[in-house]
Write a sequence for this structure.
């Protein structure tokens, strides 16, 4: 028997469990440990609430979770309640699937001003992540600035722009819907330090901006190279750039403008006690395609700034960390004997949910090469004894199903699905029938 502990119950964790099941069949026992009392990681707290079809992938993870050789162990923080060394004593392999929950820092003056938030916090706030339920972002000014040209920037701009009716059927949490319902924002400026050809946005997500009820994208035609230059782009990127060209050619007048400000690098954030403006420098691309400042600066008024410039894995005591890359130091997923990383914790915050599937198989292959058939380790029995001795209140998958049922049950007809946002409420909901 092989005993495997996977830390983190998001896509990387469940795809790794699935790959281990396929590789080892009945000869493996897997514990998926999460610090939250709820599973599925970014599927619950990162994927945009109005992208419900993407969230349906959790049904596949549920099928894995309900098999006999996989167990969910929620409400347990590794590095705090249990150390990595203790886990390595109990299990043949410990796989870190902890994702990249921290914002890459926006390293400019004024980034600490009230009103400036990172996308992990902002997205976590509207998705009901317990760490961010108290965020209370500033939504009372007419201007919002979103920094970055990736899909997260698009998610944030779209959620700010959608009407309450457009959010019906989503699982946006009540506190976010309340705040957004009353917001005074009429201009969302998306700052990209490079140009339309360098965006990291995908066509489906970009296209949604052209379909909004009360908001319309605005793009400056002068930002594009000649149309022939699009031929050199890969098909997906060409589609995205074509959409941007259409936005530029057919500007629509709607109450909220979503302004794509390309070749615009944030230099500083200013304001008296809270953010009032972002100072931006015009850029141009150098021979390597990097943004270089031109010295030409201007200010974009903003009461809210959301920095969507990527994420970092949170370090765990005792685990080697690559500070520059913002993830665990690893060689194709191997960190140290018995210790592995998978998903964003292995390769950094890029790729789609599906990218984690081959990642999971890579780790399962490593385990097949590295682990003995039967080391005699105690696995889950040892963990249970340790947690019980420490008085840890473990949440099981069955408990999660009760929480899920309670959330769904509380939803009023036609209203957004209720989602519990604090650890206390989640824990008490597992008792509700
Ligand atoms: P991302 O795709 O890496 O985009 C980050 C953006 O931030 C880039 O445009 C980057 O510009 C910019 N940036 C980085 N540092 C900056 C700085 N100091 N100042 C200004 N701009 C800066 O990251 P993401 O949007 O967080 O997305 C993470 C991953 O999740 C991606 O793979 C994404 O596709 C995926 N995702 C997918 C969906 C979906 O499919 N619906 C939704 C959300 C997220 P440069 O290019 O110039 O570095």
């Amino acid at each position: 028997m092989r005993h495997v502990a996977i830390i983190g119950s998001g896509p990387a964790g469940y795809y790794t469990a699935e790959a281990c099941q396929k590789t080892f069949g009945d000869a493996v026992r897997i514990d998926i440990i999460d610090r939250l009392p709820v599973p599925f990681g970014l599927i619950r707290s990162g994927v945009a609430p109005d992208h419900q079809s993407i969230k349906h992938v959790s049904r596949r993870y549920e099928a894995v979770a309900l098999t006999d050789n996989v167990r969910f162990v929620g409400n347990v923080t590794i590095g705090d309640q249990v150390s990595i060394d203790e886990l390595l004593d109990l299990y043949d392999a410990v796989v870190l699937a902890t994702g990249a929950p921290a914002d890459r820092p926006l390293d400019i003056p004024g980034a600490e001003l009230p009103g400036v938030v990172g996308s992990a916090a902002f997205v976590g706030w509207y998705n009901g992540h317990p760490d961010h339920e108290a965020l209370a972002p500033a939504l009372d000014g007419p201007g919002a600035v979103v920094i970055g040209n990736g899909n997260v920037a698009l998610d944030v701009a779209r959620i700010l722009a959608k009407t309450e009716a457009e959010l019906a059927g989503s699982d946006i949490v009540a506190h976010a819907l309340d705040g957004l319902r009353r917001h005074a924002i009429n201009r969302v400026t998306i700052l990209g330090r490079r140009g339309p050809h360098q965006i990291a946005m995908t066509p489906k997500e970009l296209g949604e901006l052209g379909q909004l009820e009360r908001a319309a994208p605005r793009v400056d035609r002068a930002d594009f190279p000649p149309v022939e230059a699009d031929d050199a782009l890969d098909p997906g990127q060409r589609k995205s750039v074509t959409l941007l060209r259409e936005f530029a050619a057919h500007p629509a007048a709607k109450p909220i403008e979503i302004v794509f400000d390309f070749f615009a690098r944030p230099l500083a954030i200013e304001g008296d006690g809270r953010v009032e403006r972002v100072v931006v420098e015009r850029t141009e691309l150098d021979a390597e395609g990097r943004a270089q400042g031109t010295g030409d600066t201007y200010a974009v008024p903003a009461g809210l700034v959301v920095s969507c410039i990527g994420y970092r894995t949170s370090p765990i005591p005792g685990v080697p960390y690559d500070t520059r890359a913002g993830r665990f130091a690893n060689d194709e997923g191997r960190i140290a004997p018995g210790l592995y990383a998978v998903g964003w914790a292995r390769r950094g915050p890029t790729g789609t949910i599906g990218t984690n599937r081959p990642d999971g198989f890579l780790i399962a292959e490593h385990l097949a090469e590295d682990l003995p058939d039967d080391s005699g380790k105690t696995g889950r029995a040892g963990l249970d004894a340790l947690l019980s001795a420490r008085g840890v209140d473990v949440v099981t998958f069955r408990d999660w199903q009760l929480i899920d049922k309670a959330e769904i049950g509380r939803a009023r007809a036609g209203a957004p699905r209720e989602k519990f946002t604090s650890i206390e409420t989640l824990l008490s909901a597992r008792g509700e029938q």
User: Anything to note?
Assistant: The chain has a mean pLDDT of 95. The longest helix spans residues 235-249. The pocket of NAP is lined by residues 147-153, 155, 193-194, 198, 200, 202, 205, 308-310, 349-352 (CB under 6 Å). The two ends are 36 Å apart (CA to CA).
